[in-house]
Amino acid sequence: MPIIIDGKSISAQILSELKVKGSQLEAQHGVRPGLAVLLVGDNPASETYVRNKIKACEEVGFHSVVERLSDFVGEENVLERIHNWNESKEIHGILVQLPLPKQIDEQKILLAISPCKDVDGFHPENIGRLLLGMPGFLPCTPAGIMEILKRTKIQVSGKHVVIVGRSNIVGKPLANLLYQKTEEANAVVTICHTGATNLKHYTQQADVLIVAVGAPHLILADDVKPGSVVIDVGTNRVPDPTSKTGFKLVGDVDFEGVKNKTYAITPVPGGVGPMTIAMLMQNTYLSAEGKVFNKY
Questions:
Q1: Is 120 one of the catalytic residues?
Q2: CA-CA distance, 255 to 268, in Å (whole number)?
């Protein structure tokens, strides 16, 4: 039987550890980790994501601030909020919920966040630090995948890891994490995408297959090497007339068709998803601790 990797359980363990660490940091140094979240507009999906992040802050005892602005807000107003949070001693992490309205330059906003408060790990300085193997904040989803591999004792050193997806949020940073010359990485990495003329040619070679493209059931049983580890990052809404909501969540991998061919696999939901928020909380704690950028 395959190992079904329980991301919810791993995430809960990490949050429990952070609650203790955060409490100790406040008791010993008077520093309570604080996260500021900016939400522009009334996108229901974004509102749900923000609510889950604030709930996680409450769970671990972190300070949190949410600033909600209208769809018609000007870019200067957004930049002003970020500047204030950059200067605040109570705020250690800044997160701008994407997407932003068309009148606002997303890249300009993300660049305005101080790298030492960039808990999403999207600032070019943090991406550069990742590439060079220097301390910095890691993008949350790739960091969560690395934590899953570590805590389930799945060794990737010397193994062939195939990543399907080349986004700046998952594919590219994850590839850089996996081939670092460290004990928990040191993998041979192939990064490919849906533009490959024969995607199966690559996925069938993977000792560890990681799929992050946002295409429901892109990967079928015949695409997977027997005994491999499959990490499914995709979260896709598909119609389901039997559900109260009218839809269900599925991954980029056909879980039911693929699982019995694998050594281990993550489900959707309940696999990688919960780890992303856990890593956001971890980055916020690390920022408050002040050692990543040697603030103290």
A1: yes
A2: 8
Q: Pick the catalytic residue: 8, 42, 71, 97?
A: 97
Give the CATH number of domain 140-273; options: 3.40.50.261, 3.40.50.720, 1.10.357.10, 3.40.50.410.
3.40.50.720
CA distances (Å), origin 166, targets 29, 191, 195, 213, 217: 41, 7, 11, 8, 18
Q: What would the pLDDT profile of 127-145 be if each residue is shown by its tens digit?
A: 999 999 999 999 999 999 9
Q: Determine the pLDDT at residue 294.
A: 67
Pairing relationship of beta strands 188-192 and 3-4 according to DSSP bridges: unpaired
What's the rounded Cα separation, in Å, for the pair 184 and 177?
9
Contact by Cβ (8 Å): 195, 166: no
User: 12-51 b/e with 16+ CB inside 10 Å = b?
Assistant: eebbeebbebbeebbeeeebbbbbbbbbbbebeebeebbe
- pTM of the predicted model as reported, rounded to 2 decimal places: 0.94
- For CA atoms 184, 186, 188, 194, the dihedral sign is positive
Catalytic site residue from 118, 120, 252, 254: 120
- With a cut of 90, say whether residue 288 has pLDDT above it: yes
Fold of 29-114: Rossmann fold (3.40.50)
Q: Which of 53, 172, 225, 259 is catalytic?
A: 53
**Is residue 223 annotated as a catalytic residue, yes or no?**
no
Is residue 53 annotated as a catalytic residue, yes or no? yes
Residue 279 DSSP SS3? helix
Segments making up each domain of the chain, as ranges:
29-114, 140-273
Q: What is the average per-residue pLDDT within 152-174?
A: 97
Q: Which residue has the tokens 């971890």?
A: 282
